[in-house]
Design a protein that fits this description.
The protein is of the alpha+beta class and about 425 residues long. It contains 17 helices and 14 strands.
């Protein structure tokens, strides 16, 4: 069958007419969201309860209508260190501060790529990638690069703005500006003229636009607080990098990305490096690709070490945002849509764009069944307190297997085989390779 014929359409209509269950479901979905109808409360209830290993954290942050989950998850780990060192009840780092420099770096990187590839036709695969524009999202390594270069500041020093928390329109405008600038830079290169003087003017325009939307980042600031005993503390004229060194002080470069993505181009037990995927000129995405059971083992090791685990998953798969549950048995879309089979193997889901890491959070707890096998994980999200259990979520071990794609692990937890993979020569890929 190449096209839908009248005869085939009539055959489908007759089949639907006989399906009483489908008519009942049609009436139900007419006025109720699919996720609400697909939610299986009895299955979700099995994920309730305490966690054998649990790291105490201090409340939920809110990225709001922005794609900064990767950044917030990193900051949520760092802020717990500040809270412990300063003996505070609550504290947040500024997502606005890091977002400013993330956008500035991404714009600079994009213009640099326009110059680097100016002599290639726009139809070239690299130029198609550049023309896709910059995004609001990112990876743990990108957050590390920002912190290493610019440090961090408390949220009170550079609070959120409407534009930092609602980024869609600004990203649209920035990308249009970058495409205009890219056209100018390409013409200069083709005319054998120096593009960098013009690029400096472009970056100055972008800097001003970001200052208007986010506010200008501070060069130094005073930091004062009272600890739990009421004692007053203050640092004068501390820079963002000095603040990080004094109040966070961890070696972020000791943390590496560990993935579970078994596809035709990404095999297990190998190290990979993807070029042009960072937010800064010359930065790449580097990781080791391991079996899912090894991701779990490393996650458990780190949680037992009282260290939260940054992870990325497909937040659109089998999740109920309102209830704070990610679990295939708890959100049954297949039965709701007439008993269809939607399953694809994990590797095939990646190859066919059916699934990928869409959201980053941190694991803060884990529980085990009587045989010692993980059965649920506690998650600190950055979607505010209005969803889940005051902002905290839970996922099943089954969900971890299928929809967790990467975790960030301190390399001290790697075994000898994994350390050998980490030291091996990386297989290099371009960003569009699956």
């Amino acid at each position: 069958m190449k096209e839908i014929t009248v005869e085939f359409l009539e055959k489908m209509r007759k089949s639907y007419a006989k399906d009483k269950n489908a008519h009942t479901l049609n009436a139900a979905v007419a006025k109720t969201p699919l996720t609400d109808l697909a939610y299986v409360s009895t299955a979700a209830a099995k994920l309730n309860g305490e966690f054998e290993i649990e790291i105490k954290t201090h409340g939920i942050t809110a990225q709001k209508q922005s794609g900064r989950c990767w950044m917030f998850s990193c900051m949520n780990i760092m802020r717990e260190i500040v809270i412990e060192k300063c003996r505070l009840d609550a504290f947040e780092l500024s997502g606005n501060y890091l977002a400013f420099y993330d956008k500035l770096e991404k714009c600079n990187n994009c213009l640099e790529m326009y110059i680097e590839n100016a002599k290639k036709p726009l139809e070239d695969r690299m130029n198609e990638y550049i023309l896709d524009g910059i995004g609001d999202g990112g990876y743990f390594g990108m957050a590390v690069d920002l912190v290493n270069k610019y440090g961090v500041v408390p949220k009170s020093v550079m609070p959120e703005t409407e534009q930092s928390t609602h980024t869609a329109k600004l990203m649209y405008l920035l990308n249009n500006l970058l495409r205009r600038d890219g056209a100018i830079l390409r013409d200069l290169v083709k005319a054998k003229k120096d593009p960098y003087r013009e690029k400096e003017k472009m970056m100055a325009e972008i800097y001003t636009a970001l200052c208007i939307c986010f506010g200008e980042p501070v060069k130094d600031f005073d930091f004062s607080y009272r600890d739990k005993d009421g004692a007053f503390h203050q640092d004068y004229k501390i820079t963002p990098k000095q603040f990080f060194d004094k109040y966070v002080g961890i070696k972020l470069n000791d943390y590496i990305t560990v993935t579970n993505e078994d596809t035709d181009n990404k095999h297990l037990n190998k190290r990979y490096q993807f070029h042009y995927m960072g937010n800064m000129v010359g930065s790449n995405v580097d990781y080791i690709n391991l079996p899912i059971e090894e991701l779990k083992e490393l996650t458990i090791k780190q949680l037992k070490d009282n260290d939260p685990v940054w992870f990325a998953c497909d937040a659109g798969a089998y999740g109920d945002r309102k209830m704070g549950v990610w679990d295939q048995d708890s959100v049954d879309f297949e039965s709701l849509l007439g008993g269809i089979d939607m399953y694809l193997e994990k590797g095939d889901r990646l190859k066919y764009n059916a699934s990928f890491g869409t959201h980053a959070m941190i694991f803060t707890g884990i529980n085990f069944d009587k045989k010692g096998k993980p059965n649920r994980y506690k998650i600190e999200n950055s979607w505010g307190e209005e969803v889940g259990k005051k902002g905290y979520f839970v996922c099943s071990d089954k969900y971890f297997d299928e929809y967790v794609y990467e975790v960030i692990i301190n390399k001290k937890h790697l075994n000898d085989k994994q350390k050998k993979i980490l030291k091996s020569k990386a297989i290099e890929h371009m960003p569009w390779i699956k």
